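Study the following:
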Amino acid sequence: KFMMVCLLAVAHQLDVALGVDYIMLAATYGFIANESLSIVENAGLMGIVKSDVIVNAIEVLKGKSQKIE
């Protein structure tokens, strides 16, 4: 989690250096999406979430991340 904050600080510095305002925003949205997916996945493992749509979305995203590795 500390590294996320460090990366957001670097993204902010890039925004300032380049004179733009979307690098930190994109990094923030990426971290929010990643953490949201993790929360939903853990809820599914605990049996809280049983929606087929959510389960399929998680499987698709896992498949894409495994292809990258």
